[in-house]
UniProtKB/TrEMBL annotation:
Span of the signal peptide: 1-18
Family listed: Belongs to the EMP24/GP25L family.
A matching Pfam family: EMP24_GP25L
Gene: EMP24
Cellular location(s): Endomembrane system; Membrane
Family annotation (SMART domains): EMP24_GP25L
Domain GOLD: 28-115
Keywords: Membrane, Signal, Transmembrane, Transmembrane helix
UniProt name for this protein: Endosomal protein P24B
Primary site of residence: membrane
InterPro entries found in the cross-reference section: Emp24-like (IPR015720), GOLD_dom (IPR009038), GOLD_dom_sf (IPR036598)
Membrane topology: Single-pass membrane protein; Single-pass type I membrane protein
Amino acid sequence: MKVTLLSIFCFFVALVQAHNVLLPPHGKQCFFENLKKNDELAVSFQVGSRDPNNAEQHKVDFYIMTPNGQVVLKKTDLDHGDESASASTTGKYQYCFSNEKTGRVDIDVSFNVHGVIYVDMNDPKSDTLDYAIQRLSQLTTDVKAEQGYLVIRERTHRNTAESTNSRVKWWSVFQILVVATNSLFQIYYLRRFFEVKSVV
């Protein structure tokens, strides 16, 4: 019995995966999820760059569409997010990341898809082991998604810090060169005042 429960739990955990997509310039990437009525689709994502020297924070648009093409959620200019929408009808729901406003080619989106399967609390089956396993699977999914988000966020902040440190270093070198050049020029210029010129 314990082996069976452990196998089921591992199966649910294996369904949770992080995804990465590189958005093309002026393009978008869309994905689909089959939902039943009252299910909840939740997507957490982080926008970054695959170039470690790029410290710029990129932004994308995100939206979710129903099976009949109606937009139920639209957010613009996001660098990260944790968005969710409930399914009003059963069908294939579409969620998209859009880079249509800019021509950047290195926008990398890492995202996790998770959600809540609707369970009627008045249903006698809701107080079962299957429901407890589903709930545990959902909590595990949330924890893993949060960890993935933190890893990506740390990578983005590290890239920003390293780029800033590099700029500060080269600016300091430039300032030292300017000060040294200015000092040498002043010494040379002042020496001309104290030179004794003899006329033969």
